Every structure is written in C-alpha cells, then in structure tokens.
Amino acid sequence: MPPADLMKVDGFVSLLDGMHGGINPALLTETAYAKGINVSSRGGLIHTRPSFVRENIVLPAGVFQGAGVWSLESGDRLVAVISGRLVSILVDTLALVDHGVFFDAAAQCFFCQADRFLVIQDGVSTPQVLQDIGGVASVYAYPYDEAAGQIDPEAEVGSATYGVPLDKRIPVGNTMVFAHGRIHLASGPYFTSGDVLQPDYPASCLVFTETQYFNEGGSHTLPMEMGGIHGMAVMRNAATGTGVGSVIVAGRRGISGFDLSNPRTQWGSINLAQVLFFDAGTLSPWSFLSVNDDLVYRSQDGLRFLRYTSTRVAGGSGSLSNVPQSEEVAQFLALDAAGGYLPYVSTAAFGNLVFATCSGTGGRFFRGLISLDTAQVAAMTGEDAASYDGVWTGLDFAQVLTACRDGQPNTFLFTKTPSLYRLDSDVTNDYNGTAFVPIQARLETRVFNFESIDVKKLQFVELWLGDLVGNATLTVYYRPSGYPLWARAGQRVIQVASGSLPQTRRRLRIPIDSGVTFCDPVTQERLSSATSFQFAIEWSGHLQIEAFRAVVQVVGEATPSVCDEDVQAVLAVSETAGVVLDDFGYRVES
After folding, report:
1. Hey, which of 109, 280, 341, 578 would disulfide with 81, CB 3.0 to 4.6 Å?
2. Same-domain status, 216 and 295
3. How far, in Å, CA of 489 to CA of 475, rounded?
4. Are 486 and 377 in a shared domain?
C-alpha cells in the first residue's frame, strides 16, 4: 500500500440536487450527478425508481391514438382510442367498456371533460360524448326536450325526443378546454366557444347555438405569426366566478391569453385577448399540465413553466414568467425535435413528481419518461428546490396520465403494445404481466479531481448500500475526465435470501484490476491514470446507495504509464478503448 500522504479520497453521500446534464460534470456541486437512468433521489439518497406494474386488463389490439381522464363521483375512468375504437376503463375495478368504432384509425385524439361529460375528438370524425348513467358509461345521444326547448339529460334513447340538429352540436376540431362553463374548441388558428353551462340542464354545454354573430359568437384567433393552435389550458387561482383565469391558447410560435370570464354579450366590446409570449409556443397538446398555480407544457426547446409571481396571485400587478426549466435533462428532450414526435409528448403529475415522455421512437411513442421531483424533502420548515431524477426507461411509452384509484391518485402509463401500466412504490421489480423483471439502473457521477490537478492512479472504489430487497448485481465503470468511453472496473453480485427484511452492505470494495489493460488508443496512456475521474455505477435490482468513495494514488506529473501493445490512433469503441453505455437498453417488455 502506498504511503498515506500519497493517497487521496473523494466521493458522495447525498445527491439531493439531482441530475444536471447541462453543466460539465467537472463543475457539478457535491450533491448533483451527471446522469440518472431509472433512479430517484427523493429523500436525498440515490435509489432505484418505483416499479412499472402492468394492469390485468386486455386492451384492443391496434394503434394507440390518445387517452384522457374522466373524473366523476362514481370514480375515475381512463378513456382511450385505439385504431378508431373508443374504450373506457373504470380505474377502481378495471372494468372495460368497448363503445365501438367512431374515429379515424390513425389520427391523434383529444379529450376534454365538460362538467359531467367527456368529449372526444380527432379533428376529422364526428365528435363523441360520453355520459355516466347509474355508474355505466355510454355514448351520449343528444336527446332534446322540444316542449322545454332544452337538452334533456334524463331522456332515454328511443323515446319521443328529437335529436339536436347537427349544426348545433359540438363541431369537428382538435384540442379543447372547458373553462368558465363553456367548451372552447380549436381548429387551425381559430377557436370557438360553446353555450354556457346551465345548472338545471348540465348538457346545455354540449351545444353550440350561440356561435352566430348576432349572439356575439364567431371565433377567436391567434396572431397569424403564431401558427395554428396546438394547446389550450387555464390559469388557476384567479379572482373569477369559477376560480380559473384566462384561457391560455398556445400556437406553434407563441402563447395568448383570453379573458373569457366576462359575459358573452360583452365579448364584442371589450379587449379579450393579450399576447403573452412569442417564440415560446408548443406542438404538444397533451403536454399542458396544471401544477399548483403553474402551467407546465412542452415547448420546442424543452419543458416550460408558465407562472405569475406571488404578487399577481395575491391580487397585485405582478409579472408573468415563462422560461425553459429543463436544461438539466436537455440531452433526452433533444431527441424529440426530429421525427415528428413533439405532438405526442404528454405530461402528468403525482406525489409532487412531474413526468414527461421523451426520446421518441416508432412514430408516436417514447423510450423515456422524465422525472422532475418538486419536493424531495418536504417538512414544516419548507421544501428543497425541485430537481430532476433523470430519465426512467423500460417501456415504449404512449401516454402518461394521473387518475384516482379508491380515492388515491396514481400515475398510469399507456404503452405501444397497447397495454396499461401503473407506477407502484410498494413493488421492488417491474412486472410485465407474466414475470417480474429486476430494474436496471445507472448513475453517472460528477468528475472527482481529489482536490488537486496532479496525475493519479485509480486504486479502488467502495460503496455502502442499503434497502437491499432481493438479489442485486452491481457494476462500476470509470473514465478519465473528458474521455468518451467507459472502462469496466469490476462487478459484485449480492445475494439476499428470499423473504429477508431489507439488508445493508458496508464497504463493498471493487479494486481496479491492474491485469486488465484499458488504454486511450490516441495518447496510448492507461485509462486508470489521469488527473480526474468520472464513475458510472450500474445495478440490477432494488437498492439504495448510502455512500460512495474512490481512492487514488498521487503519482505527480511524471510521464504517464504507457500501454505496451501497439494501437491505431483512432478513437473507436473496442475492447481496449472502453465501452458505450446504452441509456435505453433496459426493457420490461421483450
């Protein structure tokens, strides 16, 4: 063993600041990491993410076109369109109702809950509406009571009633929002507002009889330079009769707000619209998400948070902000810009976590799920700043949504298959419907320079592990700072007897095998000798890393050790140069 004064130690315990891939790993703080795959830093210590568990339900075969949440007193339902077929799933029981084929077999679908009804559109076919009668979901038939001159929600199909004329029903469109008692429906750069909800006749919001100009109807539009409408939402916590503020309308290249809380008779005589931002629009109608008082959405440059300052929420003038909030995970989001994936990006929130699909594959599906933890450590004394866990992989994600089961919210995931998964923190492995699959995770650390710029020789690394549930396999890789490939340091297999309580392991040492030569084929220097090192810790199974440290020997600025074998001066993936670690190599479904 070299003298103690020549040995240096560096490492980490807490990684509370999460992933930050937008900064050079050499500049990260002690509590941040360069990349996380299938990990969570909630609580401050890095550990395996929650599990993806497949629900015991058989969905129709075909192309997934979109899904929405229909929330009622009788329970939440997940409503989806697959190859034109409309289905609804009661979340509490997983009872599935096949409503039939109503839509184009390939178009993207849009969903909007209007009071107790759910409206489904695809921009091409006749819109459909679902209603709940006695706990059973059915397609709404637009019954009409001529004597009362109103839609009659109690009328039975086939009774002596008359259907509402087609030109008064919900018109064909795409993205929608229900705000201030009306359905607001987009088509191209325009959107139209339907009739206001009447408490005695809830279905009155399902007709568009006020769209004539003499009723102050017509359509609203975005400035032409913003392009078509690709997203609609509402701001929360506003001093209006419904508690929501302006209708936020997002085009391809900008966002406008429309104050539609005013009486419709005044729309033609007041200033309703205000341009909020240019060049900060969206192509992702499924991505709009209300988180506390903010709106999250997917812009072309990443995730953005649309928020007012606290003075505005309290009734003052305040200011509006809209800046990118995802530079930390930009390397994953950047994979969506090409290939036409952005229209299908979706977001969801659950348990102070915000999720967004990323890294498109196969036309409209995604290999990754970004995890943003907005409250890693919450207490009465306050909360830490939000941080990104990284990306969660294993499935081809079609859409992510949040719905309640037995009164408790959870995150549900539709996949390409198509199938339905849920997020489960009580299960330690992923479950694909037939077998449990150990989760494969990876952490890439910051760069450790051991407080000097001297040349060091890497000796060994040590790990302290906790919350071991079942067997686990752990592999450590290293590389000199700036080197693009990874050298394998070693692997440890950890055995945990079936039925055991969670276990720990102390000072699990992995030495750097001096008999294995990993060399830079350009400089012909050994990869185990450098001024600073970065590490990748990869594992399969459920565990928590409670501490990590690396030990080096300082060798000064003497001539670095040189590889013995002859190599070509071409940096390429080879057994001697190192390996590339695949961020999306883990699969739950084969």
Report:
1. 109
2. yes
3. 8
4. no
